Amino acid sequence: MYKTLLIKGMHCGHCAGMVQVELFKIPEVVDVSINVTKRNAIVRLTEPVTFDTFAKHVSEAGYTLERLI
Question: What is the C-alpha to C-alpha distance for residues 6 and 41, in angstroms, rounded to an integer?
């Protein structure tokens, strides 16, 4: 299962790396692909994850989760 996260505030590779590290802390996350230009992260999951869980980890990286697609 895949989810796309729209993330506010990312603007460079360092930003993407920080978000990626935090998203990999979620046990259900098995892969993360981030596109800074589109301000999104495509996440592959083994089980569903709530918006609040994603938002907490994105916030830990210093950014804001706008919505899930």
Answer: 7
**35 within 8 A of 67, measured Cβ to Cβ:** no
Ramachandran class of 20: left when φ > 0, alpha when ψ lies in -120 to 50, beta otherwise: alpha
- The rounded distance, in Å, linking the Cα atoms of 17 and 56 is 16
Amino acid at site 19? V
| Ranges assigned E (strand) in 9-39 | 29-35
Q: Per the confidence metrics, is the pTM higher than 0.90? A: yes
In the predicted model, what is the mean pLDDT of the chain? 97
The torsion angles phi and psi of 46, rounded to 5 degrees, stand at: -90, -25
